[in-house]
Amino acid sequence: MLEVRGVQARYGDAQALWGVDLDVAAGEMVCIVGPNGAGKTTLVKTIAGLHAAAAGSVRMDGVELTAVPGHKVCDYGVATVPEGRRVFGHMTVRDNLLLGAYRRAARRVYRETEEEVYRLFPRLRERQGQLAGSLSGGEQQMLAIGRALMARPRLLLLDEPSLGLAPVIVDEVFDALAAVTRTGMGVLVVEQDVQRALEACGRGYLLIEGRIVTAGTTEALRSTDEVRQRVLGM
Amino acid sequence: MNTVQVVLSGAMLGGLYALMAAGVSVTWGVLRVINLAHFGLILLGAYLTYQLVTIWRVNPLVTLVVTVPALFVLGALLQWAYDRLNIVEFNSLLVSFGLLIVMIQVAQNIWTADHRELPRDINPFDTGSLSLGPIVLPYDRLVCLGLAVLLLGGGHLALQRTFVGRGMRAFAEDRTVAASFGIDHRRLSVLLGGAAGASAGIAGMAFMLGNLIQPSHAYEWFGIVFAVVILGGLGNLLGTLFAGISVGALSGLVGVLWSHAYVPIAVFAAIIVALVLRPQGVFVRRRAV
Ligand SMILES: Nc1ncnc2c1ncn2[C@@H]1O[C@H](COP(=O)(O)OP(=O)(O)OP(=O)(O)O)[C@@H](O)[C@H]1O
Ligand SMILES: [Mg+2]
Fold first, then answer.
1. CB 3.0 to 4.6 Å from A214: which of A94, A128, A206, B200, for a disulfide?
2. From the candidates B160, B161, B164, B177, which should be mutated to test the interface with A, based on the most A CB atoms within 10 A?
3. A1-75+155-165+186-234 is classed CATH 3.40.50.300
């Protein structure tokens, strides 16, 4: 479904990605791990069309996304849960969710999707009328995921969803991600919590200094020297 | 009784301030453009109303059929250009001030610097009034208040309840995330600019109902309109409506108790006090906890 080939990205003169190859199929959860500053966020932004690729291609079901303007990428089935959650703090929980369904195809079925999101995260239903800025960190993360699901994506991108959350909440978040993966959605998750990511995902990529250094099944990754040294610190 | 009369009359006039402030508030709040040229659009709306009423000899409300679409297009073009040239905040203040000067000059060339007013025999709101016991409500001000309630109330509902309105609020908070959900800043600029332009047309017409117009009026509106915008809270139309009414009522009260000369001092003193107490805007609802 998602095919990333030879993607490079720059910030001015500084190159952040040096030719990244990566695939995500429908119904699989894939992780990207790597040390700070490796380019994980840049990669997510480039796939989502929020940062222009300097070279290479990003395809969704064969459609080239690097040529599509940022606000149209969601129409090709990509939704993002950004680093730091970035919910709309002055808007209510429900308004955040409905905003997620802004694109035309999602708007038509927003009631059904909203129900699905509330079933996945019952706390959001309880807090519908509350301003998003007043939610706890965990609830904001659930809201950011719910908002992305409201766009009815085929591919969900998540940038460090567990950051700063209590372990129980992280469990809840990963359970929800596993559930949406079972519905056939592709999930690409950037994680700092490498143990957790390797447990939850079938496959993974190790990104270091803008390059994919190792790729493969999580068992294979776990036993790689590079992952042990550079990320797990063992 | 005289005091009640004056306060009510001022509050109704406050509807006019709110109409003028609405466009400034939304383009500033959502698009981060401080559009001083908006006052030029109001001026244009006023003169167009004058011109059409004089030629067609119709009720001034009828001219909205022409002025609203015309100013929608102008307002949309203006925001489209700002967006294209990446003009926001401080830049927009400079650029739009330049535009305003040009617009005032153009108005002066077409309509001269002399006062213009709607022909009294055609303006049905000029002299009539509604009497409620001892209280007299002049028609022109009633229309101002009525239009303000309709326009700002309707705009508020649209911002709160529709997908596009939600998109605008989201864009105001975080452009990048809003874009990732399909919100196109170009379309949004044109749409909001058009809506602001249309509101300027309505404000210009409302102004003409009870006032004379001359080009330099555009400068005179600055103070009170910005006061209403800030008090109401950027992008908050319901707040702007209440702020307009309050400023109008306060002006009336100071005028009758004290002197008209003190109105500006009193209004701005009140605003400074109010903003010290509530810096987020006086009519902004507190964040629910
Ligand atoms: N807006 C920016 N301008 C300039 N350089 C940037 C910008 N954003 C990121 N970089 C640089 O690009 C590189 C990759 O950054 P990126 O944020 O993608 O890393 P990351 O893997 O997400 O790190 P972290 O784990 O800390 O989130 C870093 O060297 C960073 O300094
Ligand atoms: Mg990052």
1. A206
2. B177
3. yes
